[in-house]
Write a structure and sequence with these properties.
CATH class of the largest domain: Alpha Beta
CATH architecture of the largest domain: 3-Layer(aba) Sandwich
Number of domains: 3
Distance between the termini: 46 Å
Number of helices: 9
Largest sheet: 8 strands, mixed
Radius of gyration: 27 Å
């Protein structure tokens, strides 16, 4: 009589190794410690003591040694301090991409590919007859020579115009993107950690753009009292400063960067808690952290309108749940005819997406 054989379940069989499990936790902790390897390892050791993440066969010392041997951390020979390597920086960005966008449903939207044929790097599998004005590099010589042999015989090569076939390439547009990241004090205000999810979104977007669209340009801008550019590799190390939120300075710098880019397609991604509190007027800072100051808000709205005229859409990732801040982001995005993702702090894999150009609203998982 057929039956079932039950055996002891081992969660490690067919799954991740102990090192891979600890590496996932280590990468997550690095986002919270702003890339401080020593602090992340300290936290991981405390978690191990509390939840028995390791055992007698594989301990934290083994994990640290594996991190060093596999090139995830470097040790300073003088003082023994650990620091993460470029391999780890890329790994953090890749994991953020998987966490933020890993659950999104497959869609053709968001690709740069157009429906227009032209000079590009995507070869079209279909061919067509030669027409006057076609370039010589468009000729499919294999099919053209085959046509000549079929039409005129194989005794002599006689290639006529009617034998020629053209293989077109699909044109792919290139885009220049500026990614703005809010590092003002409000990103950690009232005990809410908004900078960590902001960094995760920033790393996911940068990894998506640089890997899927390598011919695009990507510039990173951070803004507090002022705005300044940083490199992609600096994102994991970002920390909140004692700054107000000068969204205007960030937008002005982003527009200035895009003005110098030659690509016809330009866009701005802005990650913020949605509360601009600062302006720079000459050499003086105009600040008001109590609610939304109309003078500051008007400057932001005016810049959103300017970007619309310049055909620069702004996509805002709203890392806060305050209703009055979401109302400002709604007004700002509606003026620009852009897009907004209203993300919750506890579930970054879920967004409420609003497209103010088409009027669409939906949940994205």
């Amino acid at each position: 009589m057929p039956g079932f054989h039950f055996s002891l379940f081992d969660p490690r069989e067919g799954g991740k190794t102990r090192f891979e499990q600890l590496l996932d936790l280590f990468m997550q902790l690095l986002t919270y410690t702003s890339g401080d390897a020593a602090e992340a390892l300290n936290w991981l050791t405390q978690l191990d003591q509390q939840y028995q993440l390791t055992d007698d066969e594989y301990g934290m010392g083994d994990f640290i040694e594996d991190l060093r041997e596999k090139g995830f951390i470097d040790e300073n020979p003088e003082n023994g301090a650990f620091k993460i390597t470029p391999k780890t920086e890329k790994g953090i960005r890749k994991r953020s991409l998987e966490e933020i966008f890993g659950k999104l449903k497959k869609s053709r939207k968001g690709n740069h590919q157009t429906h227009k044929p032209g000079q590009g790097d995507e070869i079209n599998p279909e061919t067509r007859p030669f027409q006057f004005g076609d370039r010589i590099e468009q000729i499919d010589f294999v099919n053209s020579i085959r046509n000549a042999q079929i039409n005129h015989g194989i005794d002599q090569l006689n290639l006529n115009e009617e034998d020629l076939e053209i293989r077109e390439t699909d044109f792919k547009s290139q885009t220049s993107t500026v990614l703005m990241i809010d590092i003002s004090h409000s990103m950690i205000l009232y005990g809410e950690d908004r900078i960590t999810p902001a960094k995760k979104v920033a790393m996911a977007l940068s990894e998506l753009i640089t890997t899927k669209y390598p011919k695009d340009t990507l510039d990173i801008v951070v803004f507090g009292n002022d705005a300044w550019p940083i490199e992609i590799k600096d994102i994991p190390y970002l920390q909140v400063g004692p700054y107000h939120t000068n969204t205007v300075a960030g937008l002005e710098l982003a527009m200035d960067i895009l003005r110098r880019r030659k690509n016809p397609n330009k866009q701005i991604f802005m990650i913020t808690d949605g509360k601009p509190t600062c302006l720079k007027i000459g050499k003086r800072y105009y600040k008001n952290a109590f609610g939304l100051d109309r003078r500051i808000i008007n400057r932001c709205i005016n810049l959103a309108a300017q970007c619309k005229k310049l055909k620069i859409p702004i996509t805002t990732f709203m890392i806060a749940t305050d209703p009055y801040l979401q109302r400002f982001v709604t007004e700002f995005t509606e003026t620009n005819h852009g897009k907004a993702f209203f993300a919750s702090l506890d579930n970054l894999g879920s967004f409420i997406f609003r497209d103010f150009e088409s009027g669409k609203r939906k949940s994205v998982f």
